[in-house]
């Protein structure tokens, strides 16, 4: 058997079975059991549906069990084939793997030439389990148009066991490119830090690098800030963030954000008016790697060999996608129990007490991001993932813990606008001829979906951001392939460049303004902004400025603050790039009114919700500090030892 090189990053890239660069009509087979197990399902890492026997099964499976079965790939041009990656069948009901196989090549599908190992026909080692990708490199590369994978042995248990496989083929073809001269490659932690430093050196007047904390192993969570006044919140200027790499093995978002910071630096220097306007009107924060520990694990295996889950979780084994505080359950319980609807809150929900303890199963990275959310008054965000092609919006959690159920927020219409803004401008998502990635056809939904209507995710960052802060956030699933080969990065940048820019521009939708004290002119912090008939409020930042994302229309807006009389006005939102200015000047509650309240034995109204929220956040930061100190001390002792 030819040697397998599991740690080797193949020099020739994958043809694109996993990424769907290889179309369904380029795949043929000797036979197949049914449509859901056809050759188009024989793609590396493809995931099956939960129903056995549907059209979304997790492999190609031959109808017959003999050595004459094959899966064929048409490269559509002469290609230098260098290797094959094989997996077994993805299924919760069946266990099928190919133990060994042969490979043949052809230029016309009539005459086939076997892959040789010296003077003998090569037999390659396949899989021992259904999920681990196994790489086989050919001793000698072969130039041809067609390649066949021909199983020789497979799991059999009487009548059980079928010839089933998922595959990727490695071959050298001319990669598609991009007109932008960016650093298109995968960057590990040190290389990422070096690239970010080079961007900062090239554009020191509009960029700043800072860290929001550390991963479990001590890698810093670096953020690139892009603004015409970096390091400072400017009155009236909205704060925007992109977060990538929550799952360390979903790497495309990381590279896109590194590309984006390079692109904005170069285009700003070139005088591109669109980029100049974004930089001057918006404070942008880019976190390319929320889970650097997981990424390093996947990076060591490399594209195509890291499988579906290696590097997904934090070093502690935590899935950060569901690691934020579940605020939804408390909200819905209160709605069911409270008879006086006026006592219900609909925003700025405090973190639950249990979540603030040192024993809480909260990742270091999650704690760092929550603290970051508190420090900066973010208005809009997107969380970049991989493995599908769809944009999801809150809520991500179903109300009654159903596996899936449409669960809208009060801002459903605007979230649909946001999701559509990205999906409709993405080259791949907007292609009506594209095929589904795995087992869900999101084209039917115009490539956007309510997160809970896809699957139930308690404790998501999207839901937490909406309920605990002022920030609206969606999740963007960027590609079918979680870890695209470096050769595919230029075209992926082209697919997403316009979407990344246009989504950032949505932070200027709706209304904005400053809530001030009528007598002193000082900004009022934590004033509540209410929109009539919209059951979700937001609050003003430390200088009194606020931003409320809204679709075009006419709105009745009310501002209230502790110790002040409320004020209302009507504001019209247009389709323009810039938001409508809607300022408020609040009058302090009269002294006589305060005296009357006290004389009757009453108490001056306090914003208890805000105080509880601040108290819980202080406790979370204190426990995080204690955990980090213990971890640092243990690391120091280990180094001494």
TrEMBL record:
GO terms for molecular function: metallocarboxypeptidase activity; zinc ion binding. The active site is at residue 477. It comes from the Eukaryota. One of its GO terms (cellular component) is extracellular space. It comes from Salarias fasciatus (Jewelled blenny). Its main location: secreted. One of its GO terms (biological process) is proteolysis. Keywords: Carboxypeptidase, Disulfide bond, Glycoprotein, Hydrolase, Metal-binding, Metalloprotease, Protease, Secreted, Signal, Zinc. It is found in: Secreted. Residues 185-507 form the Peptidase M14 domain. Pfam families: CarboxypepD_reg, F5_F8_type_C, Peptidase_M14. The keyword Protein transport does not apply. This is Carboxypeptidase X (M14 family), member 1b. The keyword Transmembrane helix does not apply. Its cofactor is Zn(2+). InterPro entries: CarboxyPept-like_regulatory, CARBOXYPEPT_ZN_1, CARBOXYPEPT_ZN_2, FA58C, Galactose-bd-like_sf, Peptidase_M14, Peptidase_M14_domain. Belongs to the peptidase M14 family. Residues 10-172 form the F5/8 type C domain.
